[in-house]
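To fix ideas, we close by showing one paired sequence and structure record:
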Amino acid sequence: MKLFAPLLLAALGGLSSGFSFAADPALPAPIDRVPAKSAKPDIANGEVVFNGKSCAACHSGDGNSAIPANPKLAQQHPEYLLKQLQEFKSGKRKSAVMSGMAAMLSEQEMRDVAWFLGSKPIKPGFAKDKDLVALGEKI
């Protein structure tokens, strides 16, 4: 019995420490998320990179693309944009154009560009074909 009590206490102590770890709200972020210790974004540098690396040729200088095939990136969530750039660069997301563009960017440049675009106001597009507007309203 004298041997059993210390073993029981040690086992219970180990369990309680395991449970306290499981309940710890400061668990590491999932791999797909931006680490909390990452460098702060530099919006001014994001604008320089965005315009200097030819991003503006397809997405316009303020992220409001006038080309229907290219998405408007203005006012998009920066975390989303950063994740997409990371996935283009890693090959997880496929695009012949965007994979090549993202390959030229460092992690910090991707972050800066994402926050620059997130800071720009979106300019909504408007339908030019009245028949399509009527069809869209029916849907």
User: Anything to note?
Assistant: Residues 43-119 form a domain with the Cytochrome Bc1 Complex; Chain D, domain 2 fold (CATH 1.10.760.10). Confidence is low (pLDDT under 50) at residues 14-24.
